[in-house]
Amino acid sequence: MSCAKISHSVSRLARDQRLHHASRTIFRSRSTASPSANLIESKKRRNDIFNSQIEIQKERIGRIEKINVLYKGLPKETELVLNKYISTPYNVAQHLSQWVVKRGVLALVDDLKLWDMHRPLESDCSVQFLNFDDKDPFHVNKAFWRTCSFLLGAVVDNAFKDNISVTLHSFPSPNVKSGSFVYDVKLGLDDWEPTHDELRMLSAEFVSLARKGLILERLEVTADTALDMFADNAFKVEQIPDIASSNPGNMIVLYRVADHIDISRGPMIANTEFIGRATISAVHQLQTDLGKLYRFQGVALPTGILEYTVHKLNIGTQHRYMSNKMAHHNTGVYILLPTYMNNFL
Hints:
Blueprint: H1 3-23, H2 37-61, E1 66-71, E2 78-83, H3 89-96, H4 98-103, E3 106-109, E4 113-115, E5 125-130, H5 138-159, E6 166-170, E7 181-187, H6 196-210, E8 217-222, H7 223-229, H8 234-245, E9 251-257, E10 260-263, E11 275-288, E12 291-302, H9 305-313, E13 325-328, E14 334-337
Parallel strand pairs: 1-5
Antiparallel strand pairs: 1-2, 3-4, 3-5, 6-7, 7-12, 8-9, 9-10, 11-12, 13-14
Helix pairs in contact: 1-6, 5-6
């Protein structure tokens, strides 16, 4: 074995040992520990209610009605007859081609309404698909950052050992120009400042979840049902009435990925496989009226965007010197590349 290979192997071993040491401090080890009984029960109860609501809403559909759906886009406009309250934009894409299926990030219904790819269509309508390489991908970018924040909540909720309390608060509306995604969390830790290796561990968990290629399920429920689902989270219980009062019919919009459920008005991207390289770059302490919260912050790139960006900017290997700089390319995706991103480039 060459000296270079030996050096690389030693470096990799040292890194793995550091990460293992970090896992022994505050994080749950994926290989040796499972979530606490309380967390398992809480998630099971929430998912049981979610599943029962899906069945209740399916039963309300009754006799299946047909709707006319006009697809607008490449390769050509197509008229389809689909099932009301059952068929989704994703099903529209399936009727067209695998190429359309793979590209569809978000749907636009009747040239006006942003629509999740897996949300059932409710009436005769037209459907277009929005992608990251659109001339103006603003809405796709917002859905991307929103989805990343949602996944970040899922990662943090499962990351810490049982003796550290974790209560998810919320994630602010995405700001495309900020170039990052965040989630605010209350932790049973005093003045925690994550180490580089702890951030790497969180990043690895985030990337692992995204690479599972999970769909984002959307469900509308009553405020009472939402209060029942989140009875163990004082923050959510306080937020739900205000959110419901501003929504039509006082409904609450929920999303689920794997067994993680959270509140968001959406829309989200169709599938986590659209999330490419990512890193959790920082954790900030926030002093609020609710006490101390920790704001977890990350950056990510849509699948395939990084290579395109590097080519357009003609930066080649110089990307490692872009730490803490903001880069913008003509697809409209804003990219923040902090030092931690070097781990993924």
